[in-house]
Each structure stands twice: as structure tokens, then as C-alpha cells.
Automatic annotation (TrEMBL):
Coiled coil: none annotated. It comes from Rhodococcus maanshanensis. Keywords: Membrane, Transmembrane, Transmembrane helix. The keyword Transmembrane helix applies. It comes from the Bacteria. This is MFS transporter, CP family, cyanate transporter. The chain crosses the membrane at residues 25-45, 57-80, 86-108, 129-152, 164-183, 195-214, 220-241, 261-277, 283-303. One of its GO terms (molecular function) is transmembrane transporter activity. Pfam families: MFS_1. InterPro entries: MFS, MFS_Cyanate_Porter, MFS_trans_sf.
Length: 326
């Protein structure tokens, strides 16, 4: 983990260099560093806090959302009002990454027993439960990054000013903090997470249908409703990385598989929606896709939330994905 945060710090500092190539390389290095804690933190929670997966996931997802909101709030004042400019502002995040790298050093543990363990064939990619979790997570990442990329122009097309539209984008993240706190804790107390996943998916449907059909400030209000549902679904998806895995090793692998699928979809989705806007001159494709994703979130969340563990490598069970959670 410390090495990962060193990469984040290095990538942030590279964006300080006044060269376009340094900007892109720094962003790539930073992104590589961020993938490690994204994948490993759910498994660390599963390993060190097996009886507190819900509260710890709530803390993790809430701090993640809150930090992103604070960064968005401070970026323009630091760059413009303080006079740092965008390069120094972007590079300043490297300081936090360096602090995190130092904080993780005392927590580093090397297990010789684990390193000597023989490799086994990974059965996750053949597990229906793992695929439901991965696809459920993919709907959340695709939804979130598409909204972050295009909510402001969508709202301006509905007769809101850019400043007000930007405020609603910030509100989209802020209102989700309550959902991020509540969802994993509730999910961990339930034997099946299907109902809570479907409930937050239903909130998404209400929000996005209202956003698509309303104008003026009403559209902004429904964007906030949409944000509450999206944040709750996102947090439930993260909780499932621990709740659907029989041990922390499988939690790490399930997290890695799900985030590969999810962030792969999120990488191309916003670009495609922008292309369709240029092609048709409106946001109907994006809004229609968000409605479909919200409905898919209900279906996939219901399937992913069923009380089944993903397979744990070599077992004595013919169909380990059918093992039910006790």
C-alpha cells in the first residue's frame, strides 16, 4: 500500500511539470497507484474487521466521497483566488498521498506462509455470483462517471445557469454522504442484500426519470434524489466485495475482478455519451441510458445480493458458488 501511495504522490508531482507529456504520464502513474488501494481496501476490511464489514465500509466509502467533494470545492479557490494555478493545485494532492504512504508503513505485514502457498486456479470468472457482483458494480461506476462528466451541460440545457448547474453537481456528491454512511451498515446486518440494493436502485429510477422529464430547478432537485440512490448503490456494491467472499483473499480477487469490469465500462461510457450528444444534438441517449442503468441496478443488485459466497479456489464442493451464507 505504501508503494501505491508513493506512485500517487509521484504522479501528482509530475503534473506540476509544465509539459503536456508530463501531465499525461503523471496522470497514468497516479491512476496506477490508485488501483491498488481501490482493490485491496475491501479485502483488508474483510481480513481485519470480519464482524464489522458494514461500519468499516461505511467509513471508507463516506470518507472517499467526502474527500472528493472537498477536493472539488477547494480546487477553483486554490487555483484562482489563492493564485496557485491548476498545475500547483493538481500537484498539491501528492502531499496527502505522501502522508498516507508514511502512515501505512507501520501496518505493512509480510506473511511467508502466504507467499509459500501454492497457486490455485482462480474460479471467479466462472462464478455466476461473482459476475452479478461485477456487473452490479459496473452499473454504478458507469452511472457515476457519466453523471460527473455530463450533469452540468444536461442541467444547462434545462435552463439552469452554469453556476447553479455546478452547484447541483456538487450537491449530487454531498447528498450521497448520508447514503454512503447508511447503506453498508444496513447491508451487513441483513442475510440477503437484495432488498437494500433494489431499494437504492428504485431511488435512482425516480431521480433519473424526474431529471429526464423536468426542467429548471425541478431537474436539479431530481438530480439530488438521483445522487442519493447512486451513492447508496455504490456503497452496497463495495460492501458486497467483503460480504460475498468467504475470506479476505477471495475478497481481494472479487474486488479486482469487479473493478476491472466496472472501471473498464466507466472509461468508455462518458466518451460514448459525449459522441452521441454531438451526433444527435441532445442528451436523450444519455438520459435514456441512465434510466436503463437504474433499472439494471435493481435487477443486478437483487441477484448480487443473494446470500451466496463466491468460490474459494480449490474446495471439496462441486459447485462452490452455490454455498449459502450462514
Amino acid at each position: 500500500m505504501s508503494v501505491a501511495f508513493v506512485l500517487v504522490a509521484l504522479g501528482s508531482l509530475m503534473r506540476w511539470v509544465p509539459a503536456t507529456l508530463a501531465l499525461y504520464l503523471g496522470t497514468a502513474v497516479l491512476a496506477c497507484g490508485l488501483t491498488v488501494p481501490n482493490v485491496l481496501l475491501p479485502s483488508i476490511i474483510r481480513r481485519d474487521f470480519p464482524s464489522r464489514i458494514g461500519p468499516m465500509t461505511s467509513m471508507y466509502t463516506t470518507l472517499m466521497a467526502g474527500a472528493a467533494g472537498v477536493a472539488s470545492f477547494l480546487a477553483l479557490p486554490l487555483a484562482i483566488d489563492v493564485g496557485w494555478g491548476w498545475r500547483v493545485t493538481a500537484a498539491s494532492t501528492g502531499l496527502l498521498a505522501a502522508i498516507a504512504a508514511l502512515a501505512w508503513l507501520p501496518l505493512t505485514r509480510v506473511s511467508q506462509q502466504a507467499s509459500a502457498r501454492p497457486a490455485v486456479q482462480n474460479p471467479l470468472w466462472r462464478s455466476s455470483t461473482a459476475w452479478w457482483v461485477a456487473l452490479f458494480f459496473a452499473t454504478q461506476t458507469l452511472t457515476f462517471y457519466s453523471v460527473v462528466a455530463w450533469l452540468v451541460p444536461v442541467l444547462t440545457s434545462k435552463h439552469l445557469t452554469p453556476a447553479v448547474s455546478g452547484a447541483f453537481l456538487g450537491g449530487f456528491s454531498v447528498v450521497g454522504i448520508a447514503s454512503s454512511l447508511l447503506a453498508p451498515t444496513l447491508a451487513a446486518r441483513l442475510r440477503s442484500q437484495s432488498a437494500i440494493a433494489a431499494a437504492f436502485g428504485g431511488i435512482q429510477v425516480v431521480g433519473v426519470v424526474g431529471l429526464a422529464s423536468a426542467n429548471d430547478m425541478t431537474a436539479g432537485f431530481f438530480a439530488l434524489v438521483f445522487g442519493m440512490g447512486a451513492a447508496g448503490s455504490f456503497a452496497v456494491a463495495f460492501a458486497l466485495f467483503g460480504l460475498r467472499a468467504p475470506n479476505h483473499r477471495m475478497s481481494s480477487q472479487l474486488s479486482g475482478m469487479s473493478q476491472t469490469v466496472g472501471y473498464g465500462a466507466a472509461a468508455v461510457g462518458p466518451i460514448l455519451f459525449g459522441y452521441f450528444h454531438d451526433l444527435f444534438g441532445n442528451w436523450r441517449v444519455l438520459l435514456g441510458a441512465l434510466v436503463v442503468l437504474a433499472v439494471a441496478s435493481i435487477v443486478l443488485g437483487t441477484l448480487a445480493g443473494r446470500p451466496k459466497f463466491v468460490p474459494a479456489g480449490v474446495t471439496g464442493v462441486d459447485h462452490p458458488e452455490e454455498i449459502h451464507v450462514r
